[in-house]
Design a protein that fits this description.
The chain is of the alpha/beta class. Helices cover 32% and strands 23% of the residues. The strands form 4 sheets. Strands 8-5-4-1-9-10-11 form a 7-stranded mixed β-sheet, sandwiched between helices. The chain starts with 31 loop residues before the first strand and ends in a 15-residue tail after the last helix.
Amino acid sequence: MSGNGSAVGDISRKLAGSAPGAGAGAGSARPRIAVVGDLLLDRDVDGSVTRLAPDAPVPVVDVAEVRQSPGGAGLAALLCAQQADVVLVAPVADDAAGQELRRQLADLTLVPLGHDGPTRRKTRVRSTGQGLVRVDDGGPGTPVGVDAAAVRRVRDAVAGCDALLVADYGGGVTRDPLLRELLAESAERVPLVWDPHPRGGEPVPGAALVTPNVAEAERAARRLPQAPAAADTEVPAVADVLRRAWDAHAVSVTAGDRGAFVASRRDDAERTGDGPGVVRHLPAQAAHGPDPCGAGDRFAATVVDRLARGDGAATAVREGVVAASAWVAAGGADGFRRGREAAGQPAERSGPESLAELGARLRAAGGVLVATSGCFDLLHAGHVTMLDAARQLGEHLVVLVNSDRSVRRLKGPERPVVPLADRLRVLESLGSVDAAVVLDADEPSDAVAALRPDIWAKGGDYTASDLPEATVVRSYGGRVVTLPYLPGRSTTGLFGQVRASEPVPASIPPTMRRSS
């Protein structure tokens, strides 16, 4: 058992205080969010299997790489921190794994509580991407030493926050009576999102939103003093039964690729007791990826962020469903960990950043990754309009730019008019473009497979059937979007006009070209 939270240090970092909600509604403002819950250390052990053990018929894994990062409330807090300033309240063990969690959470405001037992760890062992076994150890993780002084520290830390997320991972934070009182107080003051766990406590009354998945919701309904009637066993009905039982403003039952079912009060301004509410179905776009772990945390982090900014429950859940689908398509928790590692690498590199590393780095920064491709020779208003529209689909835009050799193969020996180095420089100067990357192939399927954008955008002069890369995008759950085409603007037309008015050299001097 580790010592009292006060023995391991006070709040590691303080935020300037102001009234809850101040400025959070502005689109560019960063809200302040408190995350209260149970910490885990997630570990990925990757290797290969080429033989069985001589002493038992089990595979032998030759380990190639081990990655570890915060899980549970730690992952939820890191995801919230992509868009908000975050206070994390959680028990932290006084062991090597606990120190690693502290190190990786150093950019957050950490309010540590005492922790019963060693750090809880979840270790996933894979061979060439295929999961073999998960090993759990440590715990139980129950908070210890939670006295009046500890509660005052927590209350002071969360007092200026615009919203609060309870990330319950069954360690015991949500069963502690003093912490529950504080959470109930918070629910009366700011939006409180409760992400429940079967081994955790029930949500406190007045939660803005409770977010069980289907299995958790059905299990919770069976545990109610009065079990739901047969007519109330479908997911929408269960959502409303739990909303009334938990006295929550809304309950969102997440149902994987079916999306979410949101039950809310008919009049959210008043508590309506046992009266039936309104249930909405918010569908999801099917997403496929090798690791769906963490999708619930991505959903909850997005929802609490939207509520902190003033959105209603249905709008927040809709955004959460989209974010969770994009999370799965981007590789899930393993993809997030790889992205954080890539983003943490020093600036000096032995070679250029690969497309896979670029995609992982941008996804780790949060939000939807959009990509497009083209020659972009003689950049014109049609290009700029398309790029602006593509950027509005997400938070990051990567442009794959055909190399000089590729342009010549596609457009003829007199093209490009503008050499690759200049085309890259012009594109990278646009506010809509996060990165411009050289594409030497004539079509981008391989590059798309490496980058894995959430959205692949092309101008409206194309249809999905014209794009061979569309199959690649859909294979991992991405979307193909065609954007409005600005008529009367084309590089070919401009080139013709220039040639008609003034002769243009058939080739560009080699000194003006960049090797591609």
